Amino acid sequence: MKRSTEFEPRILTRSATGSRWRMALAGSPLVLTLGCSKGGPGTATPADHSQCQGQGVSAVENLGLYTTSAVTNYFDQQTGTTGKLPPASGLDDGPLSLSLTLADNGQRLSPTLTIGNRVIAASGVKPVILDTGSAGVTVDCQVLFDADTCSGFSSSTLPSYESTQNVYVTDIEVTRCYGAGAQSGYLAVSNVILGSGDAAVSAPMPFVVVTQYPNDPPAGAGLVGINSSVGGGLVSPMIYFDTSAAPEPLDTGFTLTGGSSPTLTVGLSSSVVDTFTTSPLTAVANPPSTMPSHVSALLWSPYVPATIDVFNSGGSMSGEVSVLFDTGTQPQGGNVNFGQAGPDCSSDACSLTVSFAEGSSSVNVLQESAATLGTSDSRQSIIGLDFLLSNSLSTQFMLDFSTGQAGFALSGQ
């Protein structure tokens, strides 16, 4: 499919499928039509980051840990070691596909995550969560270490080099905000691996060891935020993974493939990008001042320009909004904000149509979903995990950090 160069809202045609949705590309926008009911399970709202301002963000940014060489040098200096962190690896043969697990009865996408010498597996009580709604890695302290070690972490006992796991924990306190609440802990540095065995990609990078969940109990053993923004001073692991040794030029970014066996593919070839219908993203306005320009050029708001139409038998409303396609929000969860009240979906379920970019061929797909309607002036909206998983055809979602594009593609027709 030809890539679009700009977002152009279109007039939407209502679907007769009710609570079903379809994507239509032939001479028309890419369209996702979802059923929506007010106050459904897994409801999400755009995160309120006001409580996070000043909570370690400046300290994280001042370190400038935005390249693997900067991370390695910092680790060596602080621990008095050499060669404990291996170089980034995994993309020498080109893009790498990693298998994901459907955890929590299909409510979460879960990768295999290794921090230093410790595998943070999804086999425990709580899974590792793959999140397109945030940037940066966090891990529950008591999963990475033991309870006694975590209870001993404080401003008086840190920094600490935990040699058993090969993790350096700083005394920099960091608070990370998500839609469900805040998480607090300490900045740490180690080698981070996604995947396992031959299907694994790795790089030294900073992350947060979470010790407190003041607003919400932890939903997972760890969270891998992979979108193209910057949050709490941290950025996506995608920025650290090395694409330079690949046999062909690769864009920084990823594709997610849904279906019964979901996968995350790291690295983007031009031939793959050209199969997606895309929409441009907005560059992050004020990247960290310590970030090299070639890294800050990879930062984009993950909110995608879109036109949303909500309607039921009692009325309808259409408007231009920004949509976050968020795998960290559970299926049948989401929030649509027009900036004003919409149709009453509490007694009569609404259909929700998202118009995304332009295309040149026709595809159709079905999905069940739900969302809530809000009135936030931000006009920022969230669509949960079912944008990827609940389709009769295999949906692929892409974020290209190098060119600043989000995209969808369908397969299995």
Description:
With 413 residues, the protein is mainly beta. Helix content is 10%, strand content 38%. The chain has 7 helices and 26 strands. It has helices spanning 57-63, 68-79, 141-144, 147-151, 270-273, 293-296, 386-389, and strands at 29-36, 96-99, 101-103, 108-110, 113-115, 118-120, 128-131, 135-140, 160-162, 167-178, 181-196, 199-212, 222-226, 230-231, 234-235, 251-257, 263-268, 277-280, 304-312, 315-325, 334-337, 350-358, 372-374, 380-383, 394-400, 405-411. Strands 5, 6, 7, 8, 9, 10, 11, 12 and 13 form a 9-stranded mixed β-sheet that branches. A hairpin with a 4-residue loop joins β3 (101-103) and β4 (108-110). It is globular.
Task: Give the tags.
single chain; 413 residues; mainly beta; 9-stranded mixed β-sheet; 38% strand; globular; disordered N terminus
Outline the secondary-structure elements.
Layout: E1 29-36, H1 57-63, H2 68-79, E2 96-99, E3 101-103, E4 108-110, E5 113-115, E6 118-120, E7 128-131, E8 135-140, H3 141-144, H4 147-151, E9 160-162, E10 167-178, E11 181-196, E12 199-212, E13 222-226, E14 230-231, E15 234-235, E16 251-257, E17 263-268, H5 270-273, E18 277-280, H6 293-296, E19 304-312, E20 315-325, E21 334-337, E22 350-358, E23 372-374, E24 380-383, H7 386-389, E25 394-400, E26 405-411
Parallel strand pairs: 7-13, 8-12, 20-24, 21-23
Antiparallel strand pairs: 1-22, 2-17, 3-4, 5-6, 5-11, 8-13, 9-10, 10-11, 11-12, 14-15, 16-17, 16-25, 18-26, 19-20, 19-22, 21-24, 25-26
